[in-house]
Write a structure and sequence with these properties.
Length: 164
């Protein structure tokens, strides 16, 4: 297990064909039973599987097994942005590189009708090349009150109220 919270657990696995490391995200039974979440999850993972961008974590597969939703995605050997820079000064050129990569990934997703809904520094991973990779597009746990408060600041306008 490489990560866990109230909504999901993420495991590192090996996909036999084509012989690669993947991240398998398994959602909680409670969340998996939510019709609203299942519909949102199915729609976002279907679209995300078609998107190919260097700053987005690739989604390879998704579905339901024994009543629990799961997704299989690209494994990013790295750590979340929030823990990558904690307590240390970051050179302005690197900040620029991160910002450009995050914006490029989000713009690409938006052009394809995908909105994150819970973007925060916890679901932007920094890969081995020190570049940002955005994941967690179907991560919101239903009620926004339960979301990480920092994520609400970055919530897409389309995801709030009537989208105005």
């Amino acid at each position: 297990r490489i990560a866990t919270d109230d909504c999901k657990a993420v495991y590192l696995a090996k996909q036999k064909s084509p012989d690669r490391k993947v991240a398998v995200k398994i959602y909680s039974p409670k969340l998996s039973r939510s019709r609203e979440f299942r519909e949102s999850f199915a729609a976002s993972t279907k679209v995300m599987a078609k998107l190919k961008h260097p700053n987005l974590i690739g989604v390879y597969d998704s579905g339901v097994d024994e009543g629990m939703l799961y997704s299989v995605s690209e494994f990013v050997a790295g750590k979340p942005l929030w823990s990558s820079c904690k307590g240390e000064p970051v050179h302005i050129k690197y900040v620029q590189t991160l910002t450009e990569g995050i914006c490029a990934g989000m713009c690409y997703a938006h052009k394809h009708g995908v909105f994150h809904g819970a973007l925060s520094m916890k679901n932007i991973l920094i890969d081995e090349s020190r570049l940002p990779k955005i994941g967690g597009f179907s991560q919101a746990c239903g009620d926004t009150v339960k979301l990480d408060p920092s994520a609400l600041r970055f919530r897409a306008p389309e995801m709030v109220g009537d989208g105005a």
